[in-house]
Amino acid sequence: IDLKADDLREIGELGQGNGGSVKKVEHVPTGKIMAKKIVLIDAKPSVRKQILRELQILYSCHSPYIVSFHGAFVADPNICICMEFADKGSLDGIYKRIGPIDIDIVGKIALAVLEGLTYLYEIHHIIHRDIKPSNILFNSQGQIKICDFGVSGELINSIADTFVGTSTYMSPERIQGAQYTVKSDVWSLGISLIELALGRFPFSDASSDDSDLSDLEGTLSPHRPSPLNRLSLRKEKAKEKAKKEKRKSKGVSLQGGGMTMSILELLQHIVNEPAPRLTPEGRFPQEAEDFVDSCLIKDPDARPAPKDLLKFAWIEAARTQDIDLEAWASTI
Ligand code: ADP
Ligand code: MG
């Protein structure tokens, strides 16, 4: 279809992210329901055209594990990307509604994400760059699909994103400024799977203190090469130290209902501390623990790639396991 802004009727809001918002729309001429992602963008017309050209590769991405692409256009000053609508939304919304997701279903999710990542990487040489529960979508047919992968270098460069979340799925090597590789996606998958199985972000018994984040806004992006160069890191360290002193003097406990961790502390934690695990020991199948441990090997060279992970026992079991995801979808 040749998508035009005027042909789309807005039905509702699906969510808000870093770089813009996502609306549920109807393509009036065909009656087709779609998700329209509006990306706020600060770029010249020539750059916008380049972005639209780069997005064309999405037309050739066809996989049951990838959200399909309907088209993109410029709607000054934004870029709109229209994609398949997932009527059950994203997995973050699902677990926040229903609590921890059963580990057998998490196995099916792991399988679907690995199939999607393997397809993107082996066929199109695309690295996802932003695996997290909000980019894994679910529909009432029981299908699990990934969305929002980084196909356009120009788009990645010009997204006007500020870092506003309190969670990060960034791998230790990325935090330290290394290039993105498909292994970084594997780390993000490991963190996401623990989050789904436990029903909370794994670093969050070290829960975040949002008030600390405001002045770090804009210094971190999940997409760009790590901007935490040594100078800014030193500055942030000094700031954090001052804040900690202030908290101490105010008698605010760092332990209270869970340790308070600012974004910088979280990043340092990811780099310096052992990776999170599926805990408590023995609650989940050994194969699931082994799988997640492998995703979260801190050395990217030792960490398996998605296509290696497809051969893991837990994933082979998930593949043949008879779980009716369509029936599960009707319960959530
Ligand atoms: P983020 O992924 O960081 O949450 P986005 O702007 O990408 O931010 O998306 C905002 C929300 O919109 C997501 O959390 C998701 O719940 C919802 N969403 C995105 N794409 C779709 C889609 N294709 N179908 C249904 N819901 C979607
Ligand atoms: Mg998203």
UniProtKB/TrEMBL annotation:
The keyword Transferase applies. The keyword Chloroplast does not apply. GO terms for molecular function: ATP binding; protein serine/threonine kinase activity; protein serine/threonine/tyrosine kinase activity. Keywords: ATP-binding, Kinase, Nucleotide-binding, Serine/threonine-protein kinase, Transferase. Residues 8-315 form the Protein kinase domain. ATP binds at K37. One of its GO terms (biological process) is MAPK cascade. Belongs to the protein kinase superfamily. STE Ser/Thr protein kinase family. MAP kinase kinase subfamily. This is Pkinase-domain-containing protein. The chain holds residues 60 to 391 of 391 of the full protein.
